[in-house]
Structure to design on (166 residues):
């Protein structure tokens, strides 16, 4: 037990000091990660009646555009290309998406939504509309716009690499 307590002491000693802004951002980041988990779980529940998951839902929604390759979908969603490829292949096997020739790239096929995929996506989106309306009623549009703007700004900073290395 003393070893654990001594180890804890060392951990606390080695904890870096942060600015007030750094502490506030760390709390924001932890909350955002927790929120992402809750949103994924809620999305899975919304997509379940259509036999889908949150991840499949995202790919189906992107496929509706019809002009995106797997790599483009992955970049848009902030996901690994390999994971999106796996999902797109499964969705194609199930007849929910189809690959189409890409005039911009010989090998990178476009992912398109099929009629059955559109039906499944419609089921999910109907459920999501009621869910979003109910949850959105707890906030003002200005509150949600401000929160979205902060998150979008953080994503842009992270994408640009400005915050790398502190």
């Amino acid at each position: 037990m003393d070893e654990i307590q001594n180890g804890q002491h060392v951990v606390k000693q080695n904890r870096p000091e942060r600015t007030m802004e750094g502490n506030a951002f760390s709390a924001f980041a932890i909350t955002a990660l927790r929120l992402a988990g809750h949103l994924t779980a809620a999305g899975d529940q919304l997509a379940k009646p259509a036999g889908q998951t949150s991840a499949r839902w995202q790919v189906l929604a992107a496929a509706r555009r019809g002009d995106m390759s797997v790599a483009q979908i992955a970049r848009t969603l902030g996901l690994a290309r390999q994971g999106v490829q796996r999902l797109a292949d499964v969705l194609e096997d199930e007849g929910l998406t189809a690959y189409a020739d890409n005039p911009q790239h010989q090998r990178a096929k476009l992912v398109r939504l099929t009629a059955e995929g559109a039906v499944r996506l419609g089921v999910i989106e109907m459920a999501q509309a009621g869910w979003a309306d109910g949850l959105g009623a707890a906030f003002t549009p200005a509150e949600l716009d401000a929160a979205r703007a902060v998150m979008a700004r953080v994503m842009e900073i992270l994408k640009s690499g400005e915050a790398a290395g502190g």
